[in-house]
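Re: How this chain folds, sequence and tokenised backbone to follow
Notation: Tokens come from a learned vocabulary of local backbone shapes, not from coordinates.
Start of record: The labelled sequence and token lines come straight after this line.
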Amino acid sequence: MSGTTKGLNRQQMADRIAQEFQDGWIVNLGVGIPTMCSNTDIGDRDITYHSENGVIGYGPIAPAGEEDLNLVNAGGQNVTLKPGAAVVHHADSFAIIRGGHIDVTVMGAYEVACTGDFANWKIAGQKGGGIGGAMDLAACAQRVFIILEQVTRSGAPRLVAQCALPVTARGVVKLVATNYGLFEPTGDGFRLRLPLRPHACRRLPGGPSPPTSSRDFRRWCNRRCARRCSVSCAPALRKRSTSRP
């Protein structure tokens, strides 16, 4: 995360999206921030974490000195196994994906559009590259959740009206977690379902400070900045982060 970015850190973003996982789900975790979801304390919920390289039912990232070098997640990090876990062939792992058995896949992205499109496999000016397993996951998982930082290092929004980068899949994203909030694509904007950092919303342009109660605050955010958070407010969040409301 860039030094100028405010809000939640990466583990906190992963923790928040993991709160959405339901008991009994099979959850695929993609490369990057999503892999941190396996570190989250999920209480008594029975969640099976799936990695496309064939590790099924793994747990947190292994502590230093306790790594099994032959046991890695999709990001190449050494992980631990939970009781009942299995390590399967790569082809069998993709049979689980293509068979529609993944309840949700959590992936990173460079951009997410308000229509539910997302781009996560190629950046502008990059040569080569391939879409990889993201294509299968986006097409076959029952739900797609995305974790990404709200703005780029240059201050450009990552939640946009239309993806400028090559799209991985269209109309599939159900939920987006950023370092500033939990968003749902609505087709013509993003609904701010839950502000993760209330102080950020207090610095958004357009009126007085929000109310203090959680219910009224959520209603205030949805009414005042749900759509603008995607296109025009994201740069403002960054520019105003050190100023007084």
Notes: Residues 202-214, 224-245 have pLDDT under 50 and may be disordered. The first strand starts at residue 26 and ends at 29. The CA atoms of residues 54 and 234 lie 37 Å apart.
